[in-house]
Amino acid sequence: MHKTLIAVLVILFFPSVAAAHLVTTGLGPVYDGIGHLVMTPEDLIPVLALALYAGLRGVVQSRRALFVLPVAWFLGGLLGVFVEGLPELPVAPVSFVILGVLVAADLYISSTLFTAVVLIVGFVHGVLNGVALREGPGVLGLIGIMATLFVIVTLVSAFTVSLKRPWSRVVVRVAGSWVAAIGMLMFGWLLRGQG
Amino acid sequence: MRTYLSRKGLFPGVLTLLVYLAWAQTAWAHVEGGQAAGFITGLQHPWSGLDHVLAMIAVGLWGAQLGSPALWLLPIAFPMMMAVGAMLGLIGIPVPGVEIGIALSAIVLGAMILGEVRPKLALAIAMVGIFAIFHGHAHGTELPEGQSGLLYSMGFVIATGCLHGLGVALGLVHHLPAGRLALRGAGTFIAAMGMFFLWRALV
What we know:
heterodimer; A: 195 residues; mainly alpha; 78% helix; B: 203 residues; 0% strand
């Protein structure tokens, strides 16, 4: 019983780590990167929208997004981590609107253009993540983000590809319209200085 | 091993684990404030005004009456055009007669449901889109100070979409003979409420 009491006292008085802006999981930089992605809707929602769009476009494009997005994100992240003085651009609202409209309209685009969209979205969001992670988990955090992106795109795009009933694809398109609407509102908030 | 796993040996460990799980974390420094509040505020906002609620549900009801593809095109068009209206409001571009436009949306959409009117798809989308601009202009810009614009927008759009979904779900009674009548009754109620909103906007 004494051992239990000592263990309880140690737990009660053991301080937690303070978290300043970045998500600190306490499990190391890789998990901090994972936490950063899943707790940042500016990044997470475009990833989900992109995965939905890849799923709507079919198996080939989904597989392409699966590998291109994490790599592009990582390269952008490296730039953000190591290069200082990068301009701050309203990346998230643009991503929301473009990807939301693509999903809502279920728009067909060529493979080249699709790859370009995935590359650009991944790279610019990666740069922003890199800047955010510079003072914290750094490159190891980016590796966590890459792994999470791979998992999210795999699950979401595979699920979307499996949707065969017309109404289920409609639900995906409605979700896309919501993403686009949120993006347009974000533009408004940004222009108003409350973004 | 057997001794360790016995009830007597396991109890201290379980007790320690329970105490640890029940113990609150210490404070986090510099936690961002207002994030969850922004989402909840946005989520609550569309439900706070009867004019907005009735118009959202009416869009879903009318879509269900018209059937596919209006069934899903109207609920797609509305949030996007509503966001355009909100953006106009946010950047300071005035839209004349916002309250009148909102009241008219209830009157016209209610009348469409009452009369089971089936215009061309493009016309139906245009009507819903124009009304959505008024709703967005009036309701999309009311972010309380210190809350996240993104999360407020997410909550606002999700709640609006859920109201459309509710309208569509209710509108599915259209396939039943008594349901058609009930739906027309709902249209009458929405149009009558629209008249009340119009009177309130004009007086």
